[in-house]
Amino acid sequence: MISFFQNLYQTILKNDPAIHSKWEVVLYPFFKVYICYKIGHFFYRHHFYFLARFFSEFGKRRTGIEIHPGATIGKNFFIDHGVGVVIGETAVIMDNVTLYHGVTLGGTGKEKRKRHPTIENGVMIGAGATILGNIRIGENAKIGASSIVLKDVPKNKTIVGIYK
Amino acid sequence: MISFFQNLYQTILKNDPAIHSKWEVVLYPFFKVYICYKIGHFFYRHHFYFLARFFSEFGKRRTGIEIHPGATIGKNFFIDHGVGVVIGETAVIMDNVTLYHGVTLGGTGKEKRKRHPTIENGVMIGAGATILGNIRIGENAKIGASSIVLKDVPKNKTIVGIYK
Amino acid sequence: MISFFQNLYQTILKNDPAIHSKWEVVLYPFFKVYICYKIGHFFYRHHFYFLARFFSEFGKRRTGIEIHPGATIGKNFFIDHGVGVVIGETAVIMDNVTLYHGVTLGGTGKEKRKRHPTIENGVMIGAGATILGNIRIGENAKIGASSIVLKDVPKNKTIVGIYK
């Protein structure tokens, strides 16, 4: 439990160049929403869907970040600023991923079951980027601000603009 | 009154594939903001502009969805996720329209009176799309995520990217 | 103190065509967030970084507008709607600037010290535009909705789409 907070604290401290004092971390929207996500995700895995969504919504109201409690998230995940982020139910996020505000990991409406993206290790997704469908963003890829991605991205690639 | 809630409930249930239990509906941001909009719209029509905006802002603070109380909205309207949606005062939305988060139905700053779009029956507008000016989006048109639309769209057309 | 509120009030009244009654101004998100910014900015200049961020976050939670307390802002600044706006720590905004919702004045992650844009007098930035890096947007330039700007913009120019 303590190590959970320690990791979260370290992740935020490492990621933001605008931080000046250590206690600021508890004011970070990502700090709040990630705790809410963890609680919601616990209930989701035990099929208490109402409670799961309750905590997800609770976090979203306070931060503008919507992480579906069913999403799978790895280590050292970080969202900077965050207003407008939407992460879908079947999205999978591996380790060391960073998102900025306004990022959508959503569905196209055409797929069933796994209908949201898989984001591999070390990926960085810029502000306002939209990633739709059951696609994979390869290791260490960078997705530029406001890009639209509708197909698999190879690892280490940098995407700017529309990629479909 | 009861039928109002029933319709709203049915609309949400029908539109979201991520829903697991029926009571989740009351947690939906659209559920909250639509009730606020209806109250605000009532006051707007009776020229109580302060109260109208009060309810509009009340709903927006809780959901991130800004629907001007003067907007005209038809049946079975639905907004998924919703953070960042802005719907202008003179926008007209017909029946069975679905919006995603981040959609703007705004003005260009050049028109007076009717300065926001008209969205016809059955239109779907993807996440982050921006639709500006007194234009018409024709029946059953689909506007792709992050598109920018500055002129009339014919019915059944699908728009991706900049359309001006 | 009184003149501060008077100026803020006048700026909002002048900028929004959808306003119907004068008291509506106090319901405006920009009214709230700008007061929070001023308090936070005061603490920031006196190196109380925790309190500075506390007020910045307080304002952001209520409005969806994130203005870093370190940002420098001139006279007659106005943000319309505002959900999703992010203004970085070293951003400089001169007089008579107007932003719409979803605008990012952010960093690229490559610069140190001054890493956010400078916005000169009279600039208008449309909804969802992203401006990244230590660049200058020249006097009276207009940045269209959803544009992406990564290099200096000359004065009086209008930008649409990607500018890099």
Structure report:
- The structure is a homotrimer of 164-residue chains.
- Chain A has 3 helices and 15 strands.
- The first copy, chain A, has a 6-stranded parallel sheet.
- Chain A has 164 residues and is an alpha/beta fold.
- Chain A is globular and about 40 Å long.
- The model of chain A has no long low-confidence stretch (mean pLDDT 93).
- The interface between A and B is medium-sized, with 28 and 24 residues.
Brief synopsis:
The structure is a homotrimer of 164-residue chains. The first copy, chain A, has 164 residues and is α/β, with parallel strands linked by helices.
Keyphrases for this structure?
homotrimer, 5-stranded parallel sheet, 28% helix, 164 residues, 6-stranded parallel sheet, alpha/beta
Number of helices of chain A: 3
Helix content of chain A: 25-40%
Shape of chain A: globular
Oligomer: homotrimer
What series of H and E elements makes up the topology of chain A? HHHEEEEEEEEEEEEEEE
Strand content of chain A: 15-25%
Average pLDDT for all residues of chain A: 93
